Automatic annotation (TrEMBL):
<feature type="region of interest" description="Disordered">
    <location>
        <begin position="89"/>
        <end position="140"/>
    </location>
</feature>
<protein>
    <recommendedName>
        <fullName>c-Myc-binding protein homolog</fullName>
    </recommendedName>
</protein>
<feature type="compositionally biased region" description="Acidic residues">
    <location>
        <begin position="89"/>
        <end position="112"/>
    </location>
</feature>
<feature type="compositionally biased region" description="Low complexity">
    <location>
        <begin position="113"/>
        <end position="122"/>
    </location>
</feature>
<feature type="compositionally biased region" description="Polar residues">
    <location>
        <begin position="129"/>
        <end position="140"/>
    </location>
</feature>
Amino acid sequence: MTEKEVEYMDYLTEKGILPKLLEILKQMSAMDPPPADPLMYILHALGCPLIPQAQMKALERKVSRAHDELRYLRRLLIDLDGEDQLYDSYSDDDEYVGAVEDPNESYDDYADEAAAQAQDEASGATADGSAQDQQELYNH
């Protein structure tokens, strides 16, 4: 090994990385059968939080829907002249109102969106997401 490689190995040993990885590899070598995904096993053994892709996508959809609903409710409050209810301080309006795409949009546009959402809910989806999204969350 080169001098640089030796220095790096000493650094990894000093910081406890190499001993921990060697311990995990020894555990894996004793497993019968070996893990189906060794990298995922190593990450799990190191304590890395692992979120399955399907669960992550379901959570992203849920957050997106919550943001949409929040924008709708903020715009509705503004349309009903309730701007003073949006915040308790003298901070910038944009910080609290959020990015409303078209400031000239009327309440009717949002009412149409709410009606479409209500129709979706009536057809089997819930306010917290579709049954499929919820199933994805509980399966993982």
